[in-house]
Write a structure and sequence with these properties.
single chain; about 900 residues; alpha+beta; 8-stranded mixed sheet; 32 strands; about 40% helix; binds arginine; binds zinc ion; aminopeptidase; metal-binding
């Protein structure tokens, strides 16, 4: 059933108080709920319809009177009671089986502990309730369980009581003084230990910080704890937001559908996003922990104190919070590197979503299953939209807008329009056209043309926009696009001055202009331009668009050498490489080993030996565009040609710059060996360049390079270097090292057997290998003793690794990859619909492939659709993607 934003209507009832009691047993859990309900008198009288799913109703009472079966109706998804007074007490008892709940939504068991995941609509799997975010209530929760098995009993807010019961049971009661929607409810019961610390807020309040883990992970939460403190301080400094309860808790669980969840005062985390140790976590893993800890913490204001009116507003909290965590991570490390990583991900993944059958606006207008809309569009593109608001009004006005938003809406459930209105009111700017970023799907194409007039010393820049059709609309209104521009002369950026009265602003140093494109085409004229410039466009990636400008290689070369904006500099190197790869792709039709443009090699040599550049930037600039990004530039993705052409260029770079890479490797290796592993920004940057050099060295296939790699694998004291070496070996096409690969994999497994998170990476490195035969490997990994089909991290590592990060093998012409994925989806659909629906994504992109593959992919989709009793999650994605 499709739900529409336009059908939104305020709730008929409010729940002022929610009192819950959980009796946890091995076979069943009893949930007693007592709700203080008041009718919404602004609306006509209506029956009370509570949501409830997969729960057994044991009893129900109104104002203390037990109802008989004829007093209410129950179906698969609801409980309805008519003829109620305006205020009353509703009580019910439900029985559920958390230990059998494999969907990991609602109350479930992860290994030995009970835990919950209620966003978006999981609370209804616990008890009958008005499970919608605009119903906000004060919660009191009593948890009762066996004391020996479950010594730790947690819920939101503050502990208000505890005691012993007969039969070895005990109870703890929690109260959360802040009104919240049911999706922010959490409960945990387990045999856990805690690591504690403290934080003093800006107003001098002392907060207890407590991370709960299994005893074996005791030494793995220091990094998350420090990240939490940094995030708390940052939110005070940058947004003026202080924490509000006396305790902040994080619990790490192994089985979790997503990264983490911002439940009020009791965040629940996938272990992969909170635990970190040098021996099991890569640098990227450390950065993910830092980012996710901050993200969930920031939700305390952007999400919890001010929440969403309905799920169409999801980006209100997610887009804003991702923007906040991106800026936090930028401040903790290198802002440019962070920006390049984020944009790179957006362009290869979110753009593909925008071009696919599930494309939707940042504020969707309809859905069948909301879980399908926790997407790159709502999260990452949503963050880009918030970023554009800041670009348009400036940091100072943006802060005023955010203060106004929190002040106006504290304790409320609001809309994206409310957020933008606060920004508009604080800045005095008009955001009506800008709203199209929220309402229209699709990635706009921004075309730019430059024209230098030597006589007038003017440079005219004509900007035009268009946007391809997407499922929700064939035609598009123009977007309000901020285009940050610099003009590069022979010596560097020129001073800018614009002719006439145009919508634009120029920076204090006069080197950057933000041009505002608000119609389908506009020309901006720069004056006093003494020489023909190269325009550097979309600085800092000022808008999530596809830029088309006909740069020559010389012009790109000037941007690479002279631009001070790190993003544009990196992007120019990507565009340069794209041109070179495109040549090779075209030539591959006729010759097996076409030449590679030497000028790229020279450009790379200059970058690699530039000591003034941040090593992490060098590593990024020496990374060729991903196969996904290259494919995105094509109407029909030519999987094999992309793979072979790109590899050819990689090998050419590796061989031509062999000496430079070796020198670079040795120098950094030496520097880093002087100190033990540390995940600080400088060391991370050095390791990224060193391991980029190592990867190129292994590409040469030279025995010395293989030896070097093997030595790093064996001697490394940290997961980053170990995984870099293992990946280079396992992904190498060199048949002669098959035994070495097997030996290293066996050795790694022996070392990591007891470390589930390390084993996940061991699975992923094999599932993502471009070497032929990956499917057989994946099938055998699924039989491995460490594989667990119930655990989403294992599924993502093995099935996700193969289907989403191994194009060349997944898209094998035989269709074996597609058939395999369909089999897995059919199996997983009944077990865990959310994970099934997500893993299905690659099959939905069939339109981007040749006719033969299209047919095979559609056959796979049809087979999934034919499964009786398909979940709404998978049903929605399959049916929408089958539309021709
Ligand atoms: N709000 C969580 C976060 O952004 C994600 C929750 C995902 N839940 C879901 N059902 N997909 O960190
Ligand atoms: Zn979030």
């Amino acid at each position: 059933k499709t739900i529409y934003l336009k059908d939104y209507s305020a709730p008929d009832y409010f729940i002022e108080k929610t009192e819950l009691e959980f009796d946890l047993f091995e076979a069943d859990t009893l949930v007693r709920s007592k709700l203080t309900i008041a009718r919404n008198t602004a609306k006509p009288a209506a029956p009370l319809v509570l949501n409830g799913q997969n729960v057994e109703l044991v009893s129900v009472a109104i104002n203390g009177e037990v109802l008989s079966a004829s007093d209410y109706t129950v179906d698969d998804v609801s409980l309805t009671i008519s003829n109620l007074p305006d205020t009353f007490i509703f009580e019910c008892v439900t029985k559920i089986q958390p230990q059998d709940n494999t969907s990991l939504e609602g109350l479930y068991k992860s290994r030995t502990m009970f835990c919950t995941q209620c966003e978006a609509e999981g609370f209804r799997k616990i008890t009958y309730y008005l499970d919608r975010p605009d119903v906000m209530s004060v919660f009191t929760t009593k948890v009762i369980a066996d004391k020996q098995k479950f010594p730790v009993l947690l819920s939101n807010g503050n502990e208000v009581g505890a005691g012993e019961l007969d039969g070895g049971r005990h109870w703890v009661e929690w109260n959360d003084p802040f009104k919240k929607p049911a999706y922010l409810f959490a409960l945990v019961a387990g045999d856990l230990i805690n690591v504690d610390s403290h934080f003093t807020t800006q107003s001098g309040r002392e907060i207890l910080l407590r991370i709960f883990i299994e005893p074996k992970d005791k030494n793995k939460c220091d990094y998350a704890m420090q990240a939490l403190k940094n995030a708390m301080r940052w939110d005070e400094d940058v947004y003026g937001r202080e924490y509000d309860l006396d305790i902040f808790m994080i619990v790490a669980v192994d089985d979790f559908n997503m990264g983490a969840m911002e439940n009020k005062g009791l965040n629940i985390f996938n272990t992969s996003c909170v635990l970190a140790s040098p021996e099991t976590t890569t640098d990227a893993g450390y950065q993910r922990v830092e980012g996710v800890v901050a993200h969930e913490y920031f939700h305390n204001w952007s999400g919890n104190r001010v929440t969403c009116r309905d799920w169409f507003q999801l980006s209100l909290k997610e887009g804003f919070t991702v923007f906040r965590d991106e800026e936090f991570s930028a401040d903790m490390g290198s802002p440019t590197v962070k920006r390049v990583e984020d944009v790179s991900m957006l362009r290869s993944m979110q753009f593909a979503e925008d071009a696919g059958p599930m494309a939707h606006p940042v504020q969707p207008s309809s859905f069948i299953e909301i879980s399908n809309f926790y997407t790159l569009t709502v999260y990452e593109k949503g963050a880009e939209v918030v970023r554009m608001i800041r670009t348009l009004i400036g940091a100072e006005q943006f802060r005023k807008g955010s203060d106004l938003y929190f002040e106006r809406h504290d304790g409320q459930a609001v809309t994206i329009e409310d957020f933008v209105a606060a920004m508009a009111d604080a800045s005095g700017r008009d955001f009506s056209l800008f709203m199209n970023w929220y309402k229209q799907a699709g990635t706009p194409k921004l075309s730019a043309k430059g024209d230098y007039n030597a006589a007038n010393k003017t440079f005219s820049l004509t900007l035009s926009q268009s946007c391809p059709p997407t499922p929700e609309s064939q035609t598009k209104q123009p977007f309000h696009i901020p285009v940050a521009v610099a003009l590069l002369g022979k010596e560097g950026a020129l001073k800018l001055s614009l002719q006439g009265d145009v919508q634009a602003s120029i920076s204090a140093d006069q080197q950057e202009a933000v041009l505002e494109l608000t119609s389908s085409s506009q020309t901006f004229v720069f004056e006093n331009v003494d020489e023909p410039p190269v325009p550097s466009l979309l600085r800092g990636f000022s808008a999530p668009v596809k830029l088309a400008y006909n740069y020559s290689r010389e012009e790109l070369g000037r941007i690479i050498t002279l631009e001070t904006d790190g993003f544009c500099r990196w992007d120019a190197s990507q565009q340069y490489a794209l041109l070179v790869i495109a040549d090779v792709m075209a030539a591959l039709v006729n010759e097996p080993a076409p030449a590679v443009d030497e000028s790229l090699i020279e450009a790379y040599r200059t970058v690699l030996t530039n000591d003034a550049l941040d090593p992490a930037m060098i590593a990024l600039m020496l990374s060729l565009p991903s196969e996904d990004y290259i494919g995105d530039q094509q109407a029909i993705v030519d999987v094999d040609t992309i793979h072979h052409a790109r590899n050819r260029v990689v090998r050419k770079i590796a061989l031509s710059l062999h000496a430079e890479f070796l020198a670079c490797y040795n120098k950094i290796h030496q520097e880093l060996s002087a100190a033990p592993y540390s995940p600080d920004a400088t060391s991370i940057a050095k390791r990224s360049l060193k391991n980029k050099a190592l990867a190129y060295l292994v590409e040469t296939g030279k025995p010395e390079a293989i030896e070097l790699c093997k030595a790093q694998f064996e001697q490394s004291d940290n997961m980053t270097d170990t995984m870099a070496a293992l990946t280079a070996l396992v992904h190498s096409p060199k048949a002669a090292i098959a035994d070495l690969k097997a030996a290293c994999l066996a050795q790694a497994y022996g070392k990591w057997k007891e470390e589930s998170l390390a084993v996940n990476q061991w699975f992923a490195v094999q599932a993502t290998s471009p070497v032929p035969g990956a499917l057989a490997v994946v099938e055998s990994l699924m039989q491995h003793e460490a594989f667990d089909i119930r655990n989403p991290n294992k599924l993502r590592a093995v099935i996700g690794g193969f289907a989403m990060r191994n194009s060349i093998n997944f898209h094998d012409r035989s269709g074996s990859g597609y058939a395999f994925l369909a089999d897995q989806i059919i199996k997983l659909d009944s077990q865990n619909p959310q994970v099934a629906s997500r893993l299905l994504t690659p099959l939905t992109r069939w339109k981007k492939y040749d006719e033969k593959r299209q047919q095979l992919m559609r056959d796979a989709l049809q087979r999934i659709l034919d499964k009786p009793g398909l979940s709404p999650d998978v049903y929605e994605v399959v049916t929408k993607s089958m539309v021709k």
